[in-house]
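hey team, just a heads up i'm posting the complex here instead of the shared drive bc the drive is being weird again. everything in one block, sequence lines first with there labels, then the predicted structure for the whole assembly after. its three chains so it's a bit long, scroll down
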Amino acid sequence: MADLARHVVKRDHGDKISGKAKYVCDLTMPGLLTGKLLRSVKAKALLKEIKLPVLPEGYYIVDYRDVPGENYVSMVDNHDTHIFAQDRVEFIGEPILMVVGPEAKVIDDILAAITVVYQEETPIFNVKETDTIFYQFEDNKGDVAKAFSQADKVFTEEYHTGYQEQAYLETQGILAYYEGAKLVIRGSMQCPYYLVGAVTIAMGLKDNSQLKVLFDYTGGAFGGKEDYPSVLACQTAVATKKVGRPVRVVLARREDIISTSKRHPAYLTYKTALRAGKITGMDIDILYDSGAYRTLSLVVLQRGIIGAIGVYRIDNLHVRGRSGKTNTVPNGAFRGFGGPQVFFAMEMHMSHLAKELGRDPLDFKKEYMVKQGDVTSTNGIYHCPVVLPQMLEKLDNMSDYQKKYAAYKKPQSGRYRKGIGLSLVYHGCGFTGNGERDLIKAVMKLIKYEDDRVEIMAVNTDMGQGLKTTFIKLVTTILGIPQEQVIFANPDTSRVPDSGPTVASRSMMNVGKLLERACLKLKANWQKGVYQEFEERYQHPAYLIPWNLDTFSGDAYPTYSWATNAVEVQVDTLTGATQVLGAWGVYDIGYPIDEKICKGQMEGGFLQAIGYGGMEQMTAEKGVIRNASLSDYIIPTAKDVPHMEVAFVNNPYEFGPFGAKGAGELPAVGGASAYVEALENALGTRFYKTAVSMEDILLAEEVNAK
Amino acid sequence: MVNSYFPTTLAEALQLRQAQQVVPYAGGTDLMLKDRTETAFLFLSQVSELRHVREDDKYLRIGAAATFTELLENELTPAFLKAALEELAAPAIRNMGTIGGNICNGSPKADSALVCFVLDAQLRLASAGGERLVPIRDFYVDRGKTILQADELLVEVLLPKKDWSNYYYEKVGARQALAISRLSFGGLVEIKNAKLVNFAVAFGAIDRTILRMPALEKRMMGLSVTEAKEQHKAIVAAYSEQINPLSGRISARYRKKVCLNLLEDFLTVKGL
Amino acid sequence: MTQQIKFTLNGTAVVSERHPGVKLLDVLREDFADTGVKCGCREGECGACSVLLDGLVANSCMVALGAVAGRNVLTIEGFAKVLPQRYAALQKAFAAVSAVQCGFCIPGMVLSAESLLNKHPHPTAAQIRDGLSGNLCRCTGYNAIVEAVEIAAKEGNGIW
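-- predicted structure starts here --
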């Protein structure tokens, strides 16, 4: 067991640190052309006319008329997203056409010379005013009406959570070309088979035998490259077919921030029925801003509804969740995928409830923390052990939370005020509901060659989270062979089967499990010098209560990973500026396969979450993202959280490889509320939103002058 | 067609500045925000007369092309100026960026320019035809606009020697590094024989240029510490009337409140 | 008559005839195939394009070609070639704590570390964080990278 947590040098370390690793922007090939998109500058309009300049030799325009198949990018359940806009645009940044040619400067001149005649319509920017609800679900548990009728106090709060931008260091990019008759799409992505699916439809292919998608080294993704690469893939595929030469599109940073998917902003109303100081029921309304198109909102919304009550047991519950259209950039996946919004609101709400009742927030929360065997928000069961009490104890030892909270709660004087906050969260591991069984149907292979080298045939991608290394570790540990004998190449869909997308914190838990089974079979049947192949397919755990989307009930997830976070701040009452004095996290991911890699994941995600709480302000103004550069969209530097400590508690999951559960998204879920609760502790005031700005802090002080 | 120029002496640089249509390039960290494939540059990094830090009896003299890193590493640089430079952007920008560039780009957010305002910097502007000494407070016309003529270069920043030790500096930005100032504040006092012999305060990033209010400062000059303390409320009120910040990403209301908070704190901390 | 900008790149004397106002980033990536110099923002805010200019870290997207005339430029590829001991110490330290995740910020981090260690061979954690403050990383949360530089400084033992 200890072997697997132990450190190994990461498989891709050498290539990346030396500068030799080639990302899509680094590739060269003969005849390579650059593509740049012309994007809508109107939030909602009919496209009346597009006046094109005369093109110099070797430059092309590619638009919807060039799409051989269907002009939409396949996503989950909808056809909303166009490859190129046809008769209308629905958000600023929507792609209208592509200019292709050898020189970027000439392309820019051509783009500047194109005139689009728009017939403007009235856009909707505020999701509360939307006239289109894309999805709506209701979750019911117990008898919420009765709880409210018998309440002696009802406490209602509304929260708003803002945008969050993935801000991966490498912007989006895709390269498409033909190798003979075969169409090749490669670049920065999380889910190669999503591109296969989308491009097959876009190009009108009978099957995908004449298509292959290659994953290139990808400079960060965090969910932002789950759906958007399919858009670029379809666009470049169409372009390369038209012009007969390789075409690459790499987004400029500003363009990337304005036009690609972000975390759904949300309005969240929490209404709690209290009786004799106890929560008897909750009625929650969540409204997610999808932006102009559905893209991934179907699943993001579900995860939000399911997680609306966080880690707590609420017996009488009603949650209405809706995702509405606005004429803004379509929102999609970002680490946590609908979870961070509701976990923020619930943690703050529980804390405020405690304060209303004159109780200590942590003591109050502990009363409602779920245990193994409890019923979930959707009438499923927490089948596996929940070790939150143990985690809280460890967190307190690391951070000294309880002592500090009590001390900082007392009236403070002087220029600087200190505060500490704490949050408890979970992340449901894997695809929501029946997705893994009914949609993904993961299959992977393990091949042993005659020379006894072993190759992992899975399409899951290493975008920095270390999957290449950890999968190889599974193999070396089970088979007892050296690292050098194991191959795990950057995925190529013409070689590897569809083991599913690299999303939803499913790769290690689900695909790793298949890999583990294949390895065990190979180990038991190893024939030296003989070619052997083992295939494994996903098996749905039998213990699960079936998920029913219509009744919104059952086990939404096979298991959960848990986190407790504490953040300590110092607030400057003269300027509203905060310094994070310390950040502590204790995580249950089952078992950390490579502790240093897992630690790196927790630290990176935790810092993103702290950013979500404070410095990562992003608003849209008249439909366009205002903070459209890295000088305007503020993410943490190395100086911003100088003291961060993370630790794990082992709580092995029977159905995960070596006990591992989902890990990738968990650390992004709880940091924001811990940060904002720290502000409340420091200032004796209340906040109802992310991100909390220096202005918000100064204003709160004014209102609450001590 | 010559694209750019690489003078090695100041005389050569001034000649070229007069004769050609060029953009002076010291560190380039502001200029290069845009793509510059059409610009004819006058590259100044090889002109040694622009990189010094030295004293004479009247001034501390800083070459306009001295980089922020060079200034941070020089023991002659006042601690007050170092306080601003330490928080400026990040090492890579500090290694290239220059005090002259920071002053000439005309931004009210310029960190070193703010300190130069408080220190009553004199700017030595030279052309092939002669030179002039301009107080920094007369150098700015508007945001991004200075009185530097098309044939002139800023060659030296002269800081009139005073006791610079009793300073106060605060930069308000969105994070601990790489932060564009949302507001900046610099103050300096000198108390000799219990009397105020120097009182200077400047506000950055709140208006179209960096602001000093000489009339208000005059009210404080020469007062005894006791008298100054009595004036505390009145002076803050007077500043309040004069400070009308612009609104942008950050509201005017926030900027004003913070300016006054910092002014109050400055006075209190300095015992006034 | 095109101008020639002569400089030393990764230990070798080179010439560029591109317009002196072109970003050094573009010259290095396009003309010299130094793709270890990454582009993250093009406005001096992320440090992915870091190079060493006369031993000091600079953002190559904010440096004009003309500004490096007569000067010494090192990219990550060159650093490994010209200062192999130092590169090896940093490389080994980064490996020991698994500090490389997506890798896009890493060449810049290594060069910023070199720029820091060159002046401060035994930096404090605070000095390391300040030295790296111009290199954005979205994956790691910075802890492992800071630890790697600490290890390199300690194990370095006279290299800096």
